[in-house]
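Materials and Methods. Structural model of Aspartate aminotransferase. The 401-residue sequence of Aspartate aminotransferase from Daucus carota subsp. sativus was retrieved and submitted for structure prediction as follows.
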Amino acid sequence: PSVFNHLARAPEDPILGVTVAFNKDPSPSKLNLGVGAYRTEEGKPLVLNVVRQAEKLLVNDSSRNKEYIPIVGLADFNKLSAKLILGANSPAIQENRVTTVQCLSGTGSLRVGAEFLARHYHQRTVYITQPTWGNHPKVFALAGLSVKTYRYYDPATRGLNFQGLLEDLGSAPSGAIVLLHACAHNPTGVDPTPAQWEQIRQLIRSKGLLPFFDSAYQGFASGSLDRDAEPVRMFVADGGECLVAQSYAKNMGLYGERVGALSIVCKTADVASRVESQLKLVIRPMYSSPPIHGASIVATILKDRSMYHQWTIELKEMAERIISMRQQLFNALKSRGTPGDWSHIIKQIGMFTFTGLNSKQVAFMTKEFHIYMTSDGRISMAGLSSRTVPHLADAIHAAVT
Ligand code: PLP
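The predicted structure was written out as tokens:
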């Protein structure tokens, strides 16, 4: 018998498993709203024109090779990534207080940050939002941190439970790590207002908690890269320390290229350089050094004024299509007279709507309408189109009546 005979079959990943089930469904009207990847009006994956253009430049440049890049990744990519999230004139960058390492997309950046904290930070507890992206608790727990939750979402209002958030962070032990979604909270689509962010900042700083931002959707929420980075910049502006994990999966459509960055903003340049030296010791035995292609695409675009500008236009188009899907779905439910208040669909922000549908209703919609989504009722607005909105609205209507 196999030496692995004792193994039980593991369950599918709750998010990626939705696509597995979708692929098995032969129905022509099937609709996958599970996975967080952008689709065009025609329901097709999108490669940005500016990405194609950058790739052509890279391929035609015969001086480029495939040598290993440094443990910390491409220097240009790292500098430009820090500027993108912290702002072009960030004093922290000018004072060399930021260390940035290229990592394997958002997930890899979170994991490297978590491993670093587990090894070198005195407080091993991390607070994550309730609910959050399903991978968060696993990434942090497997890195060796102890994971606790803080209240975030209020099912009654389908908005922020701000009081609960303040109470829970207020009673967190001093120094605890707090994971914050920089914008477009996943799965709820509910973000604090700027005034609420300011209160959260004051609480975190007064208690000496350590903020760790997950920025997976910069530019995707509002269509503006700067606006979506505001919460992070607010924390950096006060001179305090924080970590930021960036992903280029959504905002440049580079999902499978696995390109992202971890920045650690420190008090002094000397600390930042020692932090970087330790990050290398975390990364080297994990995957040695990151891949070259995706980061080269990003650096090419961020470096060039006109390509950067073109990117912001294409990014805005994606964000606006998602926002228009929200309005169309809301209108479709209104016109059907579907019972309930569906205004949260247009109030929530980013790729997802947290519909408020329960797991029974979700199962019904999958069985009767071949619509696939996670059992918590989260739908990816990016997977919808004008053509498929009526089908989804019919399904929701049937599920709640
Ligand atoms: N963080 C959040 C909140 C996400 O929603 C995602 C992707 O769905 C990620 C991080 C990481 O994605 P990736 O590793 O593909 O960059």
